[in-house]
Amino acid sequence: MESGYLWVDHAAPEHERAVRVGGRVRLPEARPPWLVVYESPGRVLVNRWPGRLFAVRTQPASTAGERVALAEVTARILPGAGYTNAMVVDVVEELSLALMFGAGGDAVVRVLDAARALDEPTAHRLARARNSGAGDACRAAWQRWRDQPRPWGLGSPIGSGFGLLHRLVSDSARARGGPAAWVVDGDGEEEAAEPWASAYGALREAAMAYGAPDLMDGDSGKIASAAWIEVYGHMPD
């Protein structure tokens, strides 16, 4: 048995959404979608929000056919990928979602929830309150992170938080901003219009400032979080 982490969101198959602590999750058949068991919370790939995070222990497949099918799919996983596939897991406990988003994970969760609930008036407020130096502060923090030794495959200082944040703001813009929330750029690709683009920038900068405070120097944390504080107030300690 190997220990790992299982992420379950609203789009997961029914046998996963029925997960309970102390129970067992088992694939009904030896075919995709396989259970994805991550080696650490920070490697969990979160594409939808919200969801639930569980500590699990993998169990061996029951039949020879299941073992062959599982061996074939796991053989294609690259070393260091940060996950494995399974057919059966025992659920040990439910964990805080903050564990997936780095040292300041609780704050990142609050930023993600704000992005999911974002409406146009709040987007305007964030855009107006955004400090002109916030983007540079965030980019400098990114560079400090890139210059540090880190585990292979770790995509950002807050795990998959930045990619998820972009998706949530995009979903909010589509749901509450209407057609005017999107413009077509010079390459023919859709991109968020104002105030959504600046609101996303403000939330991204807050996620960096609060989620990875060790990467901020001097007043950069205050600069990057200025819009968040103006609109939502100070983060709880």
Automatic annotation (TrEMBL):
Domain of life, per lineage: Bacteria
The name this protein goes by in its record: Uncharacterized protein
Source organism of this protein record: Catellatospora coxensis
